[in-house]
Amino acid sequence: QPIEKELNSINDVKKITSSSSEGYSLIQVEFESGYDIDDALQKVRDKVDKAEAELPTDVEKPSIIEINFSEFPIMTFNITGDIGLVKLKDIADDVKDEVEKIEGILEVKISGGLEREVKVDVDLDKLVHYNIRFDDVIEAITNENRTIPGGLIDVNNSSFLVRVPGEFDKPFVIEDLIVRLKEGKPIYVKDVADVNYSFQEKSTYARVDGLECVTMNISKRLGANIIDIADQVKEVIAKYEKKLPSTVKFVLTVDQSKDIERSVKNLENNIFSGLVLVLVVLFSLLGLRNAFFVAIAIPLSMLITFIILSALNITLNFIVLFSLILALGMLVDNAIVIIENIYKFLEDGNSLSEAAKLGAREVAWPITTSTLTTLMAFGPLLFWPGVVGDFMYYLPLTLIVTLASSLFVALVINPVVASKFMKLETKGEKPKTFIGKLFAPLQKVSVYFSQKMLPATIDIYQKFLESALGNEREPGQKIHWRNWVGLLSVFVLIIVTSALLANPMVPNPVVLGGSILAGIGIIKVFSNSRLRVLAGAILTLIIIIDIYAEFGHGVEFFPSTDPERIYINVESPTGTNVEMSNKIAQQIEKRLDTFLDADVKEYVANVGSSNNPFSGGQGGSPNVSTITVQFIDYNDRAQASTKTADQIRNVLLDIAGAEIEVKKEDNGPPVGAAINIEVIGDDFNTLGAIAENIKQEIVNLDGVVDLKDDFDSGRPEVRVMIDREKAALYSMNTSIIANSIRTAINGFEASKYRINEEEYDITVRLKKEQRESVDLLRNMRITYNDKQGKIQSVPLISV
After folding, report:
1. Please, are residues 245 and 261 in contact by the beta-carbon 8 Å criterion?
2. Which end of the chain offers a freer environment for a tag, N or C, measured as fewer CB atoms within 10 Å?
3. What values do phi and psi take at 429, rounded to 5?
């Protein structure tokens, strides 16, 4: 709260969110869009430093981390095999060293596997028997596991370094350490504790398709080429995989470069298809040579766009690629007008140079105006606020640069090229060149289209236009009464239709059907052809709007598409241990196995951790699990992955003991749930009750799925209430008793055991069976020094 209070005084802060758990707090500060991130970080640091004076003295210094989406993992490998988690972890460490040598790699994080640890499990009864404090065991290990330099000595003109080596070369040396002397006899660590060189207790589980695994998350540096890095990583993995047993597999579950490559290939295909279609269409109208002049606008405009985007330090991200594809069809618009007009002047008898000048000059201002109006339509999108605005900023910018480049190509490059290579096509002339002969069959189609089909189509259009325009009204001629009636009927029909659509008693299809028939009758009332067309257009527009209002599928920010993967978030009640969470996750995995023969490629289960990227590395919780389900390639699916996700959601409904959410991968920037209701107040219990009431009201509404709240009633706890007067009689206080309990239960890192380049914790704490019962906790003995300095102990329940 002191930190939140200080942060609230910073200007331009949009939202502050905090969550706290035992021994850990996370505060997220969101600034208004466009705020300078360096300035924001400095202000947050200043306010946190100011609030530190109000924090408890034993609190670690708060760490401030900038959330940068570009540093999130681009690839995730899961290593599986039947050689055990220890060896899998060693393999992951070796591969990590090789991957981190690749230029552009930021870091490789390894999770899962087993971490080695030297366990010193103290027997509380033996401590009491020998009258030894818990801290005596810790001090014995800490003081002995040291290598201390003793300085330099000069002997016979030579200088020698004096060193006192004391670090343990084997973990079991700890057993023979002397804790203290009792009546002249040494009491060893092995007399009061068991020393084991084993593994830390598992707090998380990771599996791929039910097989235990070790996970590698690979992140790249800002601005590094994701495709090049991914290719190099895959090459390193492939080489290393050849050295391993065939049962060891590197399963690639996340690969962002694959999506980028697919987008690039789509862009290449669109460019090629656009060139072919432009050549075919324009060859039919202007001939092969002129069609080529227009088609060169596509690669030249793209090239200029890439140069400008590179100068602006903009990478080829998804939005840029999508924008290029969107602009592809508009790149030839200006070139078509320029080339066709130059060709027209050439047909009128002008020389190539004159035709290029006159043709470009005549239409230069119209196509410039047309392009500018299009650019202005996209201009306001540059100022779209918020995270979504930052995400979508590249779309209008890319379109503006691309269309401006196409205008430059049309006004500058196309006339120059045309003035050198354009020529009139002589009808009926036999082709002489190889290319001309190759396209000779298409030339016949072109002639038939331009001389037969096109004139016939224009004749039909001309007759329709003459009928629509009708005869001119003579000066002084009065408007026919039927036209007045028709205009009035149009307005009456609009009002009546709107009123009936708003009336739930009248079926909307009946209203729309009646409106269409009435509209046809009204159009026939008019005696003026132009008014008929105008009235028909108005009625058609109104009917279309009404039809969309009735049968439209609503509005959404990003379209719902088939996801590449889904996330199954599992949350058990607070206080659930990781073993119980693991059992629930295994139930889910067993049901997912039935989908492996269908459209599911693989699934990855992470038990005891969440997929929240904002957790600052502390998001793990024993009651939280995430299962990532990866679908097979889009073209190979038997059905839409959205349907498969719904089927998975349905088969998980009857699993008890946890809230299960099936969430599709987000399209676009992270915008949260479709609807978010915030309940604000001071009393958390009251807020939780209100939130539960709201959930009960809306849970059965159509279309509501995965309804959840973030209210946490708190973890079940055992409170140790200290009688300060009794504690004082034994020269103890709350801090001494609390630290003794914490050390006994959570353990204390007494030192490090180093072997080769690795180091492992030496952890001292109570034996497992002595810290898993409330009754044992009550009778746990707390040691203290009495007034004579002798070590004494009393049961916890006595203070």
Report:
1. no
2. N
3. -75, 135
Closest residue by Cα to residue 173 from 187, 190, 185, 186: 190
212-233, pLDDT tens digit by residue? Answer: 899 899 998 877 888 899 999 9
Residue found under tokens 């699934």: 603
* CATH code, 127: 3.30.2090.10
Verify that 574 and 509 share a domain, yes or no. Answer: no
The pTM is what?
A: 0.69
Q: 775 lies in which domain range? A: 117-199+718-798
CA angle 37, 43, 45 (to 5 degrees): 100
Do 437 and 547 lie in one domain? The reply is no
Q: How is residue 96 annotated by DSSP?
A: H
For the ranges 304-308, 381-385, 515-519, 781-785, the one whose mean pLDDT is highest: 304-308
Residues 629, 536 within the same domain: no
Residue with tokens 């590698």: 216
pLDDT tier, 188 (very low <50, low <70, confident <90, very high otherwise): very high
426: its two tokens: 């002589």
Contact present, 117 and 198 (Cβ < 8 Å):
yes
Q: Which amino acid is at 24?
A: Y
In this structure, the answer to whether residues 413 and 274 fall within a common structural domain is: yes
Contact between 125 and 96 (Cβ < 8 Å): no
Spatial neighbors of 205 by CB under 8 A, at least 6 apart, are 212, 578, 582, 585, 605, 606, 607, 608
Pair (388, 503) in one structural domain: no
Whether 559 is covered by a domain: the verdict is no
The pLDDT assigned to 385 comes to 75
Query: Are 425 and 320 within one domain?
Result: yes
Amino acid at 726: K
The SS3 of residue 208 is strand
DSSP one-letter string for 233-282:
HHHHHHHHHHTS-TT-EEEEEEEHHHHHHHHHHHHHHHHHHHHHHHHHHH
Task: Report the alpha-carbon distance of residue 76 to residue 68 in Å, rounded.
Answer: 18
- The answer to whether position 475 is within a domain reads no
Q: Which of 11-15, 136-140, 575-579, 676-680 has the highest mean pLDDT?
A: 136-140
- The residue count for the chain: 799
Give the contacts of 681 (CB within 8 A, at least 6 positions apart): 687, 690
Q: Where are the alpha helices (DSSP H) in 552-663?
A: 578-592, 641-651
Domain boundary among 510, 526, 551: 551
Residue 59 belongs to a domain: no
* Domain C-terminal end among 503, 520, 551: 551
Query: Which pairing describes strands 758-766 and 116-122: parallel, antiparallel, or unpaired?
Result: parallel
For 62, 352, 378, 758, the CA distances from 334, given in Å and listed in that order, are 59, 19, 18, 66
Cα–Cα dist 259/629, whole Å: 17
Q: 499 lies in a domain?
A: yes
Q: How many domains does the chain have?
A: 6
176 in the same domain as 325: no
The candidate with the shortest Cα–Cα distance to 386, out of 614, 668, 612, is: 668
Phi, psi of 774 (to 5 degrees): -70, -35
The owner of tokens 């432009």 is 278
Compute and round to an integer the Cα radius of gyration of the chain: 38
Give the whole-angstrom CA distance, residue 757 versus residue 412: 65
Same domain, 89 and 208: yes
